[in-house]
Amino acid sequence: MVPLDLFDFGFDLPSDWEIVRHLLTPESGRLEFCTIDGLVADFAWTTTRREPDLRRTLEGVRRKYYKEARNDDAYNTFAGLKIERIGELDYGYDRNGLPGHAGIWLKERNLLLQWFFPKHDMAFARDVAYPIMRSFREWKGEESHWSLFGLRASLPRSFQLTKASVYPADVTLELETEKKHRVRLHRWGLPDLMTRGTSLENFYHLYVMKRFRSIVKKTRPAHFFGWRGAELEFKRRGQVGFELLYGPFWKGVGQIVRPDTEQRLYAAEQYGPRKTNYLPFEKIFSRLVQRR
Amino acid sequence: MEARQAFHDIRSQLNAIPVKNTKVRVEEEQADVMVLSIEKKYRNIMWLMAKMFNLRSRHAYKIEGIGKDLYELLDGETNIGDLVGILRERYELSFFESRGLVMEYLRMLTGKGLIVIAAPKEEAAGE
Q1: Contact A20/B10, CB-based, under 8 Å?
Q2: Confidence of residue B1 (pLDDT cuts 50, 70, 90)
Q3: pTM, full prediction
Q4: Over the stretch A212-253, which tens digit does the pLDDT of each residue have?
Q5: B98 touches chain A (CB under 8 A)
Q6: Which of A49, A85, A93, B9 sits most deeply, having the most CB atoms within 10 A of its CB?
Q7: Pair B117, B17: CB distance under 8 Å
Q8: Which residues of A touch B66 (CB under 8 A)?
Q9: CB < 8 Å to B64, chain A
């Protein structure tokens, strides 16, 4: 099982599931999971004004699904979902071979989480769906965790996701606080190819300079978790609105590490207005060590 | 249209076989760099212009590193699934990461006319 943690909640998912489509905003979003055999699950969240009637919501979605799938037989004979409480979620199903559907409403965030599994049968429910439901967790402490696209990071809860760019073996998540402390997290694959003909410091220096369009002041080798890495200091125009070209320079720090245990590079750049306290790199990626 | 749809599901896509264009010439080969060239086709009036001004008659492409490794694996038998598996194993990538990289690379080679994607023999015979 691999963790999926985003915003303030999380699940454990089968390790061969991968996200192939995503829409990530705190208010509403969707993740589509596939394996080599095709779609296996669809996870969506949406903000609601008040507590929804979960049964009615699940059944409404189901009716709509049957109608859109032109499954007249299922639509005409649909008499409601059989709903079971698994962990903290309600799991609803109609009959074997038709979709399974689960949901939970998070009171504190006014957020409705919904899982959609294209094909339900009891074996699938027992082996896959129920363990996912049981693994549900809500982060309520000072820290929030992010486990997405293979990237695992821990940040204070004040950080909100602002951007995610996901390409094969190249994942970047951008988060920021209300005070504009910004963090960019990276996970790259193919480290041998990316650093071919150059050193890790030089690769990262060039990345921050050219791709992140910043002025790099100092780069030096470093070690994180006992692994080889590099750190640098940079500055770039602080941007809150449209002042990208004339705003004051904000200082920033960047760190990169190449774990010995996997063929990946992990990096984090932080920058913000004056008096920003940067987070220790080891704290952000503390869950890298747990994976060892 | 049917042939296009046949590649839409993941497994049939993985069974497809990339085949090198026989008209591609290897101009130069080193340890991790290879230069390939293919005949350049001028159309309509450009053909006449090319003759008159002696424009270049071949396009050259330099492939290196992982791109060269993948190109060398194309023997008319290795299918896309094999390439995905090799890349996945060698670089510890996930299935969809590896598939994404391979498909993007093959799309690029196809666009340049260096390879074509063929249906596996059984499927072709079935049609």
Answers
A1: no
A2: very low
A3: 0.87
A4: 889 999 999 999 999 999 999 999 998 887 777 788 899 999
A5: yes
A6: A93
A7: yes
A8: 190, 193
A9: none
